[in-house]
């Protein structure tokens, strides 16, 4: 009776207040799990991939947070619309995305892990940017504005200076196809992609290594993958990455010469990496093909055709040193040159490439 006399209104207010508190508490408890669910779906890269694949710029922009950097979104859009993005999926840890992509016409794919950056408000997180996954090779289109240039069997992608590689690379591809004695060893792809990073920083991001590690190398031929599965119908391709600092002063002929060496590596990637101790077989073949096709101005590195061999078989490390690798390349080119004059050259090169126990054939020595 006393409570009723005191005031039903007060009781109602107390009950209401209690209910509000309960609702707040429940929503706080449930809120964290709802946010997690919402975040997981909001963070799925599906809408972004759909927008790229359907050339839907508005959808692409809508996949980013409203406060994301517009110039950055434009850069990514302009870059990606020149490329085919085949898959974009969260990795197992969900902190990274795996992106599988190619230059239109390329027979294989590149596979990279990239890191989405999130802009999180009280209710949900939105995509702010996509950046290099720490320690992982970055796709070139993440490092700055790129464009795609094509000629013949090559495509060059990169920054503002990339197109100067197009004619030399196309001529090198032509020469590669005109190396009849090595034709059984050379299997170039339908379209060889050459990546030209804008500067040393972009080069270092693409290789996930300090540019200094490669200061002696004009270009690198490598498998364009930072791990993860690619769709079963696809194969990871060999790409050539130009070292911008090491090649800044090259003539057109020197670029062509360098491209021929690297395209030989790419066209022999079907043999996989040489067995331990047999790096010289791969380097010797690349040099031998290169020197079958002299260029008008000086070649790069300087042409030093052998014939006879001097000294002993170079170790794998002799090609990676920051010191002088001339002797190692010269020996290898001379040895491959002698082997290529044999009627069973293709079989011998393959056995030497793959089997570290395969005995070295007798070679003519200079001294
Ligand atoms: Zn090489």
Short description:
This protein is an alpha+beta fold and 367 residues long.
Q: What's the SSE blueprint?
A:
Elements: H1 2-6, H2 8-42, H3 46-53, H4 57-62, H5 70-80, E1 84-90, E2 97-102, E3 110-120, E4 125-132, E5 147-151, E6 154-158, H6 166-177, E7 192-196, H7 200-207, E8 219-223, E9 238-242, H8 252-267, H9 279-291, H10 326-340, H11 345-354
Parallel strand pairs: 6-7, 7-9
Antiparallel strand pairs: 1-2, 2-3, 3-4, 5-6, 8-9
The structure holds zinc ion.
Zinc ion binds at residues 261, 265, 283, 286.
The strand order across the widest sheet is: 5-6-7-9-8
Order of SSEs: HHHHHEEEEEEHEHEEHHHH
Q: Helix coverage percent of residues?
A: 25-40%
What would you report as the Rg, rounded to the nearest angstrom? 29 Å
Instruction: List how many beta strands DSSP finds.
Output: 9
| Poorly predicted residue ranges | 1-34
* Distance from first to last alpha carbon: 121 Å
């Amino acid at each position: 009776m006393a409570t009723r006399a005191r005031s039903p209104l007060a009781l109602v207010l107390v009950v209401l207040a209690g209910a509000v508190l309960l609702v707040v508490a429940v929503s706080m408890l449930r809120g964290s799990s709802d946010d997690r669910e919402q975040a997981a779906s909001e963070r799925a890269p599906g809408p972004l991939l759909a927008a790229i694949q359907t050339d839907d710029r508005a959808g692409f922009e809508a996949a980013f947070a409203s406060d994301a950097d517009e110039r950055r979104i434009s850069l990514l859009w302009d870059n990606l619309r020149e490329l085919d993005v085949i898959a974009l999926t969260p990795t197992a840890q969900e902190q990274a995305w795996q992106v599988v992509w190619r230059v239109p016409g390329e027979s294989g794919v590149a596979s990279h892990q990239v890191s989405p950056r999130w802009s999180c408000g009280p209710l949900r997180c939105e995509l702010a940017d996509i950046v290099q996954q720490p320690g992982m090779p970055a796709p070139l289109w993440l490092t700055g504005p790129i464009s795609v240039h094509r000629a013949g069997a090559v495509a060059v992608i990169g920054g503002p200076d990339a197109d100067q590689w197009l004619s030399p690379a196309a001529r090198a591809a032509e020469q590669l196809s005109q190396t009849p004695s090595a034709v059984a060893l050379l299997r170039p792809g339908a379209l060889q992609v050459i990546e030209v990073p804008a500067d040393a920083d972009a080069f270092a991001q693409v290789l996930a290594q300090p540019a200094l590690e490669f200061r002696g190398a004009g270009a690198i031929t490598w498998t364009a993958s930072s791990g993860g599965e690619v769709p079963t119908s696809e194969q990871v391709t060999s790409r050539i990455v130009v070292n911008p600092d090491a090649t800044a002063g090259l003539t057109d002929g020197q670029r062509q010469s360098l491209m021929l060496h690297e395209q030989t590596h790419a066209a022999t990637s079907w043999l996989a990496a040489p067995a331990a101790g047999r790096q010289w077989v791969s380097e010797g073949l690349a040099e031998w093909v290169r020197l079958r096709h002299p260029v008008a101005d000086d070649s790069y590195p300087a042409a030093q055709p052998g014939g006879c061999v001097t000294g002993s078989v170079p170790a794998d490390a002799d090609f990676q040193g920051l010191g002088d690798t001339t002797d190692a390349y010269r020996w290898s080119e001379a040895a491959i040159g002698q082997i290529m004059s044999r009627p069973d050259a293709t079989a011998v090169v393959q056995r030497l490439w793959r089997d570290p126990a395969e005995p070295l054939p007798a070679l003519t020595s200079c001294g």
